[in-house]
Amino acid sequence: QVRLVESGGGLVQPGGSLSVSCAAFGSISSFNVMAWYRQGPGKERELVASIDWGGTTNYADSVKGRFIISRQNVRNTVYLQMNNLKPEDTAVYFCNAKRLQSSWINYWGQGTQVTVSS
Known about the structure:
Elements: E1 3-7, E2 10-12, E3 18-25, E4 33-39, E5 46-52, E6 57-59, E7 67-72, E8 77-82, E9 91-100, E10 104-108, E11 112-116
Parallel strand pairs: 2-11
Antiparallel strand pairs: 1-3, 3-8, 4-5, 4-9, 5-6, 7-8, 9-10, 9-11
């Protein structure tokens, strides 16, 4: 059974930084891709950043140059470092893990709230 638990959300002022973490219960090395998604008020869930088993990263255009995704397989943890935060980054951030078997299998965390406001 896979479980993903996010932590580290909170309130931050515009221009500030925040880091969120995702602890996986179950080895993340078995996942092909780990990712962060977010869902803002009245918006659809969108991909923020992803990192594959080889360490290749991918970012949404809106966060390129500001956010950094990383993973520590030994700690079964994925991180998202968010810098120069903007009010439009306000959202619930969800950890996602993908495993390719006969088709893609997705696992989701419960989400953590990030609010950017002065």
